[in-house]
Amino acid sequence: MYDASIAALRARFPGVDGRVRYSFHAIARTALMLICGRAGSIGDRPKACVAEIHFGQGDSAVSGWIVETGGAVEGRVPYDEDAIGAACELEGFRIVLRKPTGRRPIEIAIAMTKRLHFALFPPQAGKWMFTRLDIARPLAPGDAAGMEIAHKARLGARLSRCELLAGGAPLGSIYFSLVDA
Questions:
Q1: How far is CA 17 from CA 37, 43, 61, 142, in A?
Q2: HSE toward the beta carbon, residue 146, CA cutoff 13 A
Q3: 149 CB-contact burial (10 Å; exposed 0-12 / middle 13-18 / buried 19+)
Q4: Helix count (H) and strand count (E) of the chain?
Q5: Per-residue pLDDT band at 157 (split at 50, 70, 90)
Q6: pTM flag (> 0.90)
Q7: Which neighbouring-strand residues pair with 55?
Q8: φ/ψ of residue 41, rounded to 5
C-alpha cells in the first residue's frame, strides 16, 4: 500500500518529493481507493479512511486519504516476515539487516520493527502493528542494504517509536501500536 500510494502521488503530481508521513487509523477489510490533492485541498478525513499520507513540503505538498470502497479485495501480496527476521541480528534495542532479502524497503522496515518489538516487549495480549511512518524522504531500493531500526521511546503502554536508519544515517521514525488481537 505504501509503495502504491507514493507511486500514485508521484504520477499525479510530478516533481513532488520530500517528507513522508503515513498513518494508519484502522485495518482495511475491503478494497481501497486513494483520494488525493494538494495539501489542505481534500477536505476532512472521510469515515471510511483507513490510512492517510502526506508527502512533500511547502507549496508542492500533497495529501491523500486511503479509504475502503466496500468492494472485494482483488489480491493480497503476502511476504515472509520470518525470512526477513532471519536475515537480521538483534543488538540490544536495535535490529540490523545483515543479509539481502530481495524484499522492498517498506516490507523490511515493518518486519524488522515488528521483530524488535516482539523481542523487547512481548505482549501478554494483543499484537504489535505498524501504525505510522514519518521519514525525511520516500524509501528507495538502496535503503534496504544494512537497514537498521533502533527503539527510541515507549509512549505509554500501547505505542512505541523507533528510528529508521538507511546507510547508517537516520531517515525518520516508524511507530508501532499494541492492538487487541
A1: 14, 22, 8, 17
A2: 8
A3: buried
A4: 3, 10
A5: confident
A6: yes
A7: 20, 62
A8: -105, 0
